[in-house]
Design a protein that fits this description.
This protein has 272 residues and is mainly α. The protein has ten helices and four strands, in the order ββααβαβααααααα. A two-stranded antiparallel ribbon has the order 1-2.
């Protein structure tokens, strides 16, 4: 009776009802050698060197650049690869495994037109870990913490990362949701606040919409809405109080970041 090691990959192949053949796929040295040769050819040699050099210099090249990303190298035979096979000896005992992991997908942002504000529960959920840590940070402060180090940590560990969460969402909406989704933003066709729509629907072809957007009056409203939303999320009257001073500061920080984000956003005219 034949037997196989329990670590060998096995597959049940049906032959009749309730009857199977137990198959053990064997490692193909010739196939491994062909794969090894192909992968090596994309990594070494004067031809590949010239292609990569052209790519690095952003120059055109007649031949395409081929790559096998995320490969794993296996070794067989230890210090005596010739004991495995002749082909294994020619490969110096090396072989490649290709990446067979399933692709990862990023969730597509939903059309924002059904929302009334982008500063909502969904954003609070996405930033929940930052908000939790920010509240704990504020609750731990004492009079001795009124210094530059505390202010620096407040900004760079909490406020700025929170703005990044917002800008990441905005960038995905601008790039992945079809332009013009906010058409009729001032009526029942779109529930989203007009100023938020003016920010996010950057490639809306409507002329009136683009004139409003270019005026940039919406910047102040969006910054104020972020500051008000963040203060609501941080509310903890038992440990601290936040008021107009904090509101104005957060609004100022966000407005500065928003203007920088807007400068880096390709505008409607630039995409024609």
């Amino acid at each position: 009776m034949l037997s196989a090691d329990n670590l060998i990959k096995q597959a049940y192949f049906p032959v009749e009802e309730d009857e199977y053949h137990l198959l053990c796929p064997l490692y193909s040295s010739s196939l491994a050698h062909a794969l090894y040769t192909k992968v090596r050819a994309t990594r070494f040699g004067e031809k590949v060197k010239a292609i990569r050099e052209a790519k690095n210099k952003q120059h055109y090249h007649l031949e395409p650049l081929q790559t096998f990303p995320h490969t794993v190298k296996q070794t067989f035979g230890g210090s005596k690869p010739q004991n495995v096979s002749q082909l294994n000896s020619e490969r110096h005992g090396e072989g490649f495994l290709l990446n067979a992991a399933p692709p990862s997908y990023q969730q597509q942002p939903e059309n924002p037109s059904k929302q009334t504000s982008i500063f909502n529960r969904r954003l609070a959920y996405q930033a929940s870990h930052l908000l939790h840590d920010f509240r704990a940070f504020l609750a731990s402060l004492t009079e001795r913490d009124r210094n530059f180090a505390t202010r620096y940590r407040r900004d760079h560990d909490f406020i700025l990362p929170l703005t990044d969460v917002v800008f990441d969402y905005a960038a995905r909406v601008q790039q992945q949701v079809s332009a013009g989704w906010s058409k009729g933003a001032d009526d029942k066709a779109c529930r989203l606040k007009r100023e938020h729509a003016l920010w996010l629907d950057v490639y809306n072809p409507d002329a009136q919409f683009q004139r409003e957007r270019e005026a940039q009056d919406w910047l102040d409203t969006v910054a104020s809405d972020f500051a008000a939303w963040l203060l609501r999320q941080l509310e903890d009257k038992k440990h601290y109080l936040l008021g107009d001073t904090e509101f104005n500061y957060i609004r100022k920080v966000f407005l500065t970041q928003l203007k920088a984000f807007e400068r880096d956003t390709p505008q409607f005219e630039e995409t024609r």
